[in-house]
Amino acid sequence: MENLKQREEEEELELDEPVSPTGQYFNSSVLSISILCILESEVPIDDSLTMSLLKDVFLPINPRFSSLMVEDKNGVKQWKRVEVKLKDHINIPIFPAGLSRESYDGYFDDYLSEIAMKEFPQSSPLWEIHIIKYPTINAAGNLVFRLHHAMGDGFSLMGALLSCLQRADNPNLPITFPSFRVSSNLDSAKSIMKAVPRALSTAFNTVSDLGWGILKSTVVEDDQTPIRSGDPGVEFRPVSIATISFSLDNIKKIKAELGATINDVLTGIIFFGTRLYMQSMDHASRNVNSTALVLLNTRVISGYKSLKEMRESDHVSSQWGNQFAFLHVSLPELADDKFTDPLDFVAKAQQIIQRKRNSLAVYLTGRLLETLRKYRGPEVTARYIHTTLKNSSMTISNMIGPVEQVAVANHPCRGMYFMVAGPPQSLTITMVSYMGKLQIAVGTEKGFIDPRKFNACIEDAFQRIFEAAVGTPPPPPPPPIS
Question: Is this prediction's pTM over 0.90?
Answer without folding.
Answer: no
